[in-house]
Design a protein that fits this description.
- α4 runs antiparallel to α5.
- The longest helix is centred in the last third of the chain and has 21 residues.
- It contains 5 helices and 5 strands; from the N terminus they run βββαββαααα.
- It starts with a strand and ends with a helix.
- It has 2 domains: 105 residues, no CATH class; 33 residues, no CATH class.
- The strands form 2 sheets. It has a 3-stranded mixed sheet with strand order 1-4-5, with no helix packed on it.
- It has 155 residues and is mainly alpha-helical.
């Protein structure tokens, strides 16, 4: 039998602007032992960003929330016009704070922007799966281009 499902009815698309097609090709099969051991489990079908199939995420329990992120140096920060000025002016101890400022000024909250772009991409892909039309596939394609660009900066 199928595991209980949340998400779009269709799990695959051909992503063609002309003649878009969506189908339910993917499923999670379980047996009575699974139901007895994990009665509250379910599968979430989510847009995956780069695949023509939806991602399957089996939910067994809540995921704990993470803590604050550590400082990271991004290579693209070295291309900032003020980079050398900041490095020359400040001592090593103060660089961490200044570098964070440069990163923030250059990219804002980049992880949040990438996450937002990815969520937008997933929403557009879900819309394309639920309403397969040329306009929804074009919107999903545009969202993918934006996410791909901004996630490239993050890497």
């Amino acid at each position: 039998m199928d595991l209980a499902q949340v998400g779009p009815s269709f799990t695959w698309t051909n992503y063609q602007d002309e003649n878009p097609i969506s189908k339910k090709l993917d499923r999670v099969m379980i047996n009575s032992c699974w139901i007895s051991a994990l009665p509250n489990s379910f599968v979430t079908f989510e847009s995956g960003g780069v695949s023509d199939h939806l991602r399957m995420h089996i939910q067994l329990r809540e995921v704990p929330q993470g803590n604050a992120k550590p400082f990271k140096f991004f290579n693209h920060t070295a291309s900032h016009p003020r980079f050398l000025e900041v490095v020359d002016r400040d001592k090593l101890k103060a660089l961490k704070s200044e570098m964070r400022g440069l990163n923030h000024n250059m990219c804002g909250d980049l992880p949040s922007r990438v996450k937002h772009a990815y969520e937008d991409l997933c929403a557009k892909q879900t819309e394309a799966m639920q309403n397969p039309q040329t306009s929804t596939f074009e919107a999903a394609s545009d969202a993918w281009e934006h996410w791909h660009h901004i996630s490239g900066i993050e890497e």
